[in-house]
Amino acid sequence: MKAGISFFLPLSLLFLSCPSPLPAATARSGFVMTVLGARGGMLDGNLSAYMVRPAGDDRAVLCDAGTATAGLVAADRAGALDDIALPPGTGLTRPGYVLTHTIRAYLISHAHLDHVAGLVVASPDDSAKPIYALPATLHDMSEHLFNWRIWPNFGDAGQAPTLGKYHYRALVPGRTEPLPGTAMTVTAWPLSHGGIESTAFLIAANGASVLYLGDTGPDTVEGGHRLDDLWRAVGPLVRAHRLKAIVIEASYDDTRPDRLLFGHMTPAWVADTLQDLARRAGGPSPLRGLTVLISHVKASLAEGPAPQEAIRRDLVRDAARDGLQDVRFVIAEQGLRLNLD
Ligand SMILES: [Zn+2]
Ligand SMILES: [Zn+2]
């Protein structure tokens, strides 16, 4: 990775720096995750988008697509796409090649604009690929985005005529599906997000997995048990240390009152739910070595320190209080590439 992009705010012992990239040819297990968009609002060039691929394998999926092309350009400038082989003769820039060849599918957690805008505006120049989501999200995309009014219908359902570039693939909660054209599988679980359904995606390959959570509120505030259901499902993977990373949001810092969360999390709620995961996993130090990538921090136009600084400060305190010293917390930044072994 090149210098010039600030991947991490001031370090504490809990926040380790990014490991140096492994040569792709020698990596055989684990994942590479590249942050194309990190923030949860305001910055239209930097909204939720996380590219995931097995280590040593250039066939990727994009978890959410709030920002796509702008994120690829930023990641390319940061050197975070340098390990992707660019064949000669494509006539494409590296961001163009990654958009149309490396990214084989989209996994969309929900259809809020900060999770789909990059996909929509890139669609005329994108390659044909499937969009995997729960049925409610696919319905929102086909009815309210790709409907010839908001945007031409690049999907294969909804308002005629359908251009059919994107193939909607409905996932069934808890049922594992292969991701064609990749070496990965996906399993989805619903999340509760302030009155609409969001999604968690478990992506697995070679006996390892990573878990991406779209926007979610805490069970206690949302009045349900979807996070607990998720932790019960992935607990055995965590206990076996086969889950390499969790992407989870912390939109606001700990000063935000629960009644103003609007289906989002704070560092205190993240620490609280990770304690629940540890309990569900069981065994000694189940979260040891787990990377937790904090997504969706709300950007701010106010003067003063960046919101990430308050999130980091709160997480350090909350993690220490809740016995989560084993967890490797990282705040997502655009252009960050994580090697998850
Ligand atoms: Zn969002
Ligand atoms: Zn949302």
UniProtKB/TrEMBL annotation:
Gene3D superfamilies: Ribonuclease Z/Hydroxyacylglutathione hydrolase-like (3.60.15.10)
Species of origin: Gluconacetobacter aggeris
GO biological process annotation, one example: negative regulation of glucose mediated signaling pathway
Family indicated by similarity: Belongs to the cyclic nucleotide phosphodiesterase class-II family.
Protein name: 3',5'-cyclic-nucleotide phosphodiesterase
Source organism superkingdom: Bacteria
Signal sequence bounds: 1-24
Single Gene Ontology MF annotation: 3',5'-cyclic-AMP phosphodiesterase activity
Keyword NAD: no
Domain Metallo-beta-lactamase: 46-264
Classification lineage: Bacteria, Pseudomonadati, Pseudomonadota, Alphaproteobacteria, Acetobacterales
Keyword Phosphoprotein: no
SUPFAM superfamilies listed in its UniProt record: Metallo-hydrolase/oxidoreductase
Keyword set, alphabetical order: cAMP, Hydrolase, Signal
